[in-house]
């Protein structure tokens, strides 16, 4: 029996989380990066201790504080799980979430009008950060090889210039689920170093590589770029605790951290609430077996979804995600008289991720979340199949 426990739709709606509350029944949500599973037992126990011991006061600071323990736990995890011995607790900044981390990094290392480069399709919040900060988006569209999406290094070389100050990487990539090997990233990194860019490596899905793949932290993969790299990491996605708002930023050098704080005062960042810190410690220190069991469930769900689509909807193209619980579905070859996202929402009552939010020219794509029970996943696929057939012209 799996230790991964499904949660049924009625229970999920009653929790009033954004994923299940943004749409009224009978819509089934299939976009937000949140899973429909119960959390690991150790995390639940940590939260019960918070309640029973009324841990609602201010968190202590300094050595031995929850924040210090979290920084040490992060570095220990980087070494023990990912083989990276370069993480230093003294260069860890604990923040509420990675959106805050990315925005503060962009503000710290660029000026209004400067460029921020990233691969597209991209997590929509990253595009929003660039726009809201008054920076310019430098898109590096990924190339469709017919088997997967790959980085177009030549386009990147041409797109960036001396005004491109930040490279934002998503490792593994959201929404395509790619795990980039060193040789694919190398030309991009070489160009970024030559142009003196700061590199922000979002590794929030690093725990969820599939099919036996192993994550290599960017700063370990490219030690020549480590001193200019900010590594972002959190338990919120992989351990399904996004509402607990806790993440870490690791700065690759003392100088990089000094530059950051010269532009972003520590008091502006605040500190996470104690429950998120305790939950994250329980995730990283006590819940690895749960995470490994989760990966098996995600692999099975992914393969089931791909098999059904290949059999029932062969015109919907979806490459096998190498990581995460998110899939990037291409409806370009489907004869449909509406934007796919809108058709699926209106006819199938399935709320995927609207491809238009992931960058220019992705209006025929939908992001789908397969981290749910098999019964809910099959219901989504049944509805999508019916809607595609009804919508064909």
Secondary-structure map with pairings?
Elements lengths: L8 H6 L3 H4 L6 E2 L11 H12 L13 H17 L9 E4 L2 H12 L5 E6 L3 H9 L3 E6 L1 E2 L4 E2 L2 H7 L4 E7 L11 H13 L3 E5 L15 H4 L7 E5 L13 E5 L2 H10 L2 H4 L4 H13 L1 H25 L13 E5 L9 H9 L1 E2 L1 E2 L10 E5 L4 H18 L2
Parallel strand pairs: 1-12, 3-4, 3-7, 7-8, 8-9
Antiparallel strand pairs: 2-10, 5-6, 9-10, 11-14, 13-14
Helix pairs in contact: 3-12, 4-12, 5-6, 5-10, 7-8, 13-15, 14-15
Description:
- This protein is of the alpha/beta class.
- The chain has 2 domains: 9-39 and 288-391, Aspartate Aminotransferase, domain 1; 49-286, Type I PLP-dependent aspartate aminotransferase-like (Major domain) (Aspartate Aminotransferase, domain 2).
- It is 41% helix and 15% strand.
- It contains 15 helices and 14 strands.
- It has helices at residues 9-14, 18-21, 41-52, 66-82, 98-109, 124-132, 153-159, 182-194, 218-221, 254-263, 266-269, 274-286, 288-312, 340-348, 374-391; strands spanning 28-29, 92-95, 115-120, 136-141, 143-144, 149-150, 164-170, 198-202, 229-233, 247-251, 326-330, 350-351, 353-354, 365-369.
- The strands form 4 sheets. The protein has a 7-stranded mixed β-sheet with strand order 2-10-9-8-7-3-4, sandwiched between helices. A 3-stranded antiparallel β-sheet has the order 11-14-13, with helices on one face.
- α3 runs antiparallel to α12 (274-286).
- It is globular, with a radius of gyration of 21 Å.
- The mean pLDDT is 96.
């Amino acid at each position: 029996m799996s230790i991964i426990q499904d949660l049924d739709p009625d229970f999920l709606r009653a929790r009033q989380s954004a994923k299940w509350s943004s749409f009224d029944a009978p819509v089934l949500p299939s976009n937000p990066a949140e899973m429909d599973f119960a959390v690991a037992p150790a995390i639940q126990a940590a939260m019960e201790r918070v309640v029973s011991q009324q841990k609602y006061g201010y968190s202590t600071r300094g050595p031995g504080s929850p924040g210090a323990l979290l920084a040490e736990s992060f570095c220990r995890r980087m070494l023990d799980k990912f083989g990276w011995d370069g993480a230093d607790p003294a260069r860890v900044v604990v923040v509420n979430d990675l959106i805050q981390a990315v925005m503060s990094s962009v503000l710290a290392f660029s000026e209004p009008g400067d460029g921020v480069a990233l691969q597209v399709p991209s997590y929509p919040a990253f595009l929003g950060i660039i726009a809201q900060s008054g920076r310019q988006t430098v898109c590096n569209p990924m190339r469709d090889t017919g088997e997967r999406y790959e980085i177009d290094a030549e386009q990147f070389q041409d797109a960036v210039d001396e005004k491109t100050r930040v490279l934002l990487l998503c490792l593994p990539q959201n929404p395509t689920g790619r795990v980039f090997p060193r040789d694919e990233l190398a030309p991009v990194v070489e160009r970024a170093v030559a142009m003196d860019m700061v590199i922000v490596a979002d590794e929030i899905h690093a725990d969820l590589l599939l099919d036996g793949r192993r994550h290599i932290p960017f700063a370990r993969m490219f030690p020549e770029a480590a001193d200019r790299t900010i590594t972002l990491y959190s338990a919120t996605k992989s351990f399904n605790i996004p509402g607990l708002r806790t993440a870490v930023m690791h700065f690759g050098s003392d100088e990089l951290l000094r530059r950051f704080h010269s532009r972003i005062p520590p008091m502006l960042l605040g500190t996470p609430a104690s429950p998120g810190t305790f939950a994250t410690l329980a995730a990283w220190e006590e819940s690895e077996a749960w995470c490994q069991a989760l990966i098996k469930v995600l692999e099975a769900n992914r393969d089931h979804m791909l098999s059904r689509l290949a059999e029932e909807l062969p015109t919907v193209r979806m490459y096998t995600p190498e990581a995460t619980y998110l899939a990037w579905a291409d409806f370009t070859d489907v004869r449909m008289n509406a934007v796919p996202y809108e058709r699926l929402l209106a006819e199938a009552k399935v709320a995927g991720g609207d491809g238009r939010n992931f960058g220019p020219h992705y209006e025929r794509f939908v992001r789908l979340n397969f981290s749910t029970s098999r019964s809910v996943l099959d219901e989504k696929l049944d509805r999508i199949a019916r809607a595609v057939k009804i919508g064909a012209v």
